[in-house]
Amino acid sequence: MEASMGKSVPPKKPRNKDRRSREYLTDDEVEQLIKAAKNVGRYGHRDSTMILLAYRHGFRVSELVSLRWEQVDLKLGLLHVQRRKNGIATTHPLYGVEIRALRQIGREKQDTQYVFVTERKGPLTASTFRKIVARAGELAKIGLPVHPHMLRHATGFKLANDGRDTRAIQHYLGHRNIQHTVVYTELAPSRFNGFWEK
Fold this sequence. Notes:
- By secondary structure, the chain is mainly α.
- It has a single domain (about 20-190), classed as Intergrase catalytic core (hpI Integrase, Chain A, Orthogonal Bundle).
- About 45% of the residues lie in helices and about 5% in strands.
- The chain has nine helices and three strands.
- It has a three-stranded antiparallel β-sheet with strand order 1-2-3, with helices on one face.
- A hairpin with an 8-residue loop joins β2 (about 80) and β3.
- α2 packs antiparallel against α3 (about 45-55) and α3 crosses α5.
- It is globular.
């Protein structure tokens, strides 16, 4: 109706399933993303560390860009994850590669409360991280349009394929409702292992 009155109507955003065949990345694809991000621009280490943490801890974009140093305990190897969207806060272990990457960022932080910052020491925006991930996806030649939430889905599928308990995955991702977690275990191809063994 607005179009007939001379006003322009923006085009409808295509549905995700019309743009890409799946909404998650494999472990190998995430590694390719990390490598691609590391090798581009002046902030390759920061960008690759963001992708690594988003994947390893199932961060939403808003959770990642708001990550503060007070949530990171490098001495004990712990990460205090504050979830958004009414999610459950959890504490995750940090592993060697993550600790080393965060230590390097910490040496460069210069009195900032946020872990991932701009040149002016303000927190990175969600929009900036979306661009970082999209650019890394193109450079890595993943073959489908990549967005940050695919890293969170990749976490769920990786844990489900590894046979992790559904309740443990639920708490790791901070889901209040287990129905959001069951999606990963329902689609995990490891459920079908052995169907055609001789």
